[in-house]
Amino acid sequence: MAVYTDISEVELAQFLAGYDLGEMMSYKGIAEGSENSNFYLHTSAGTYILTLYERRVDAGDLPFFLGLMQHLANKGISCPLPVERRDGSLIGEIAGRPAAIITFLEGVWVRRPTAAHCRAVGEALAGLHLAGSDFALKRDNALSVDGWRRLWAQARPRADEFEPGLVAEIDGEFDAFAAGWPDDLPAGVIHADLFPDNVFFLGDRLSGLIDFYFACNDLFAYDVATCLNAWCFEKDNAFNLTKGQAFLSGYESVRPLQEAERQALPLLARGSALRFTLTRLYDWLTIPDGALVQKRDPNEFIRRLRFHRHIGGVSEYGLGRS
Ligand SMILES: Nc1ncnc2c1ncn2[C@@H]1O[C@H](COP(=O)(O)OP(=O)(O)OP(=O)(O)O)[C@@H](O)[C@H]1O
Ligand SMILES: N[C@@H](CCO)C(=O)O
After folding, report:
1. Is residue 79 part of a domain?
2. Percent over 70 (pLDDT), the chain
3. Which of 58, 75, 103 is the last residue of a domain?
4. Same domain, 174 and 308
5. Model confidence over 223-258: pLDDT tens digits?
6. Number of structural domains, the chain?
7. What is the extent of the structural domain holding 263?
8. Considering every ligand atom, which ligand is closest to the CA of 296?
9. Ligand nearest to the CA of 283
10. Ligand 1 atom nearest to 33, measured from its CA
11. Any idea what the Cα angle at residue 301 is, between residues 200 and 128, rounded to 5°?
């Protein structure tokens, strides 16, 4: 599910009066996604996505997210283009929530990515990093080490209910980050959540990137690490070297990694695995059973975290292998 806020036809008609999108023909809630409320919107001008921004999105960040999509789309990245309102702004309000309309992208997300998909995602991620380099707005990563500490403070008292011993294990992770989290690697605009459900394909061809609502300024290699976690592990949580190699060689075909970025990958991948462990654990502990929201399993990322903690060297990700 992701329709937290329902809207009436009357509310929608009033909202659409702020746009040059012709007559409303139909709209329908979208079940997928977990953060915001999304609707397919058909008007006489075409098909669009209407998003109402919910709990994790700070309205003050919307100019960054929507401006970034506009910037990237203008640079040829296939991502949704926010539709301007009659007054030139990108953000309106419906049902008491900030809301925007963005263009509809063709394609489907792949449930079982192949190495070819992973390679295409690597190329697209590097393309995004380059295209974002001259985007004027800045946004700190609210879900980096300090943000993880805040989430952990809330989840920690009950974390051993999820898995006995988790409190001690995750406390230990924070010690590792305090000792060595890098801050001097190449940085810029990152997507920060480029999971399979945020990448559309038409066959093997990548047709678009969506969901820029965690985008921020941070290390490029952290985004690489997140994609290794999101794309290159199997359903049994085993790392797939062929996919790792395909993803990394796709990325490096557009933007080669510096040696310091390569060497930082195990720690960055641990941090990224912790980030998704913590948001999932927080949701697991706070979303009531029976709520319509789909809860994602923290265990998948606890397992990834353990994998990265014990990795012997970056060749185990497929770097430096031909
Ligand atoms: N521009 C678009 N074109 C086509 N479909 C879209 C577009 N944007 C969103 N969707 C559809 O809406 C769904 C949810 O979108 P999105 O991933 O942005 O939501 P979210 O609530 O932020 O989810 P997440 O849990 O991934 O953060 C997508 O899986 C897709 O089916
Ligand atoms: N992609 C995230 C959800 C949005 O942050 C996850 O799989 O936990």
Report:
1. yes
2. 97
3. 103
4. yes
5. 999 999 999 999 999 999 999 999 999 999 999 999
6. 2
7. 115-317
8. 2
9. 2
10. 23
11. 35
What is the pTM (predicted TM-score) of this model? Answer: 0.95
User: From ligand 2's centre to the CA of 123, what distance in Å?
Assistant: 21
Instruction: Please give the distance, rounded to the nearest whole angstrom, from the Cα atom of residue 193 to the centre of ligand 2.
Output: 7
Closest to 166 in 3D by CA, of 182, 155, 176: 155
Q: Quick check: helix, strand or coil at residue 164?
A: coil
Nearest Cα to Cα of residue 27 among 74, 94, 117: 94
- Ligand lying nearest the CA atom of residue 110: 1
Please state the ipTM of this predicted complex: 0.93
Query: Do 162 and 305 fall into the same domain?
Result: yes
Neighbour tally for 105: CB within 10 Å:
15
CATH of the domain at 287: 3.90.1200.10
> Does 155 share its domain with 66?
no
Q: What are phi and psi of 103, to 5 degrees?
A: -70, 155
Q: Are residues 272 and 298 in the same domain?
A: yes
Tell me the per-residue pLDDT of 99-127, one tens digit each, with 9 for 90 and over.
Answer: 999 999 999 999 999 999 999 999 999 99
144 and 198 belong to one structural domain: yes
Q: Does residue 252 lie in a domain region?
A: yes
Of the residues 71, 103, 135, the one at which a domain ends: 103
77 with 163, same domain? no
pLDDT band at 292 (very low <50, low <70, confident <90, very high): low
Residues 152 and 252 in one domain: yes
Highest mean pLDDT among 51-55, 74-78, 202-206: 74-78
> Is there a contact between 49 and 41 (Cβ–Cβ < 8 Å)?
yes
Ligand 2 touching residue 282 (CB < 6 A): no
Angle at 289 between CA 283 and CA 293, to 5 degrees: 55
pLDDT of residue 171: 96
User: Does ligand 2 lie within 6 Å of residue 295's CB atom?
Assistant: no
Residue range 24-44, pLDDT digits in tens: 999 999 988 777 899 999 999
Measured over the CA atoms of residue 122, residue 128, residue 133 and residue 138, the dihedral's sign is negative
| The pLDDT of residue 322 is above 60 | no
Residue 109 lies in a domain: no
Query: Token pair 């029976």 is at which residue?
Result: 290
Tell me: the pLDDT tens digits for 206-215? 999 999 999 9
91 & 205 share domain:
no
- Would you say residue 108 lies in a domain? no
Q: Is the CB of 277 under 6 A from ligand 2?
A: no
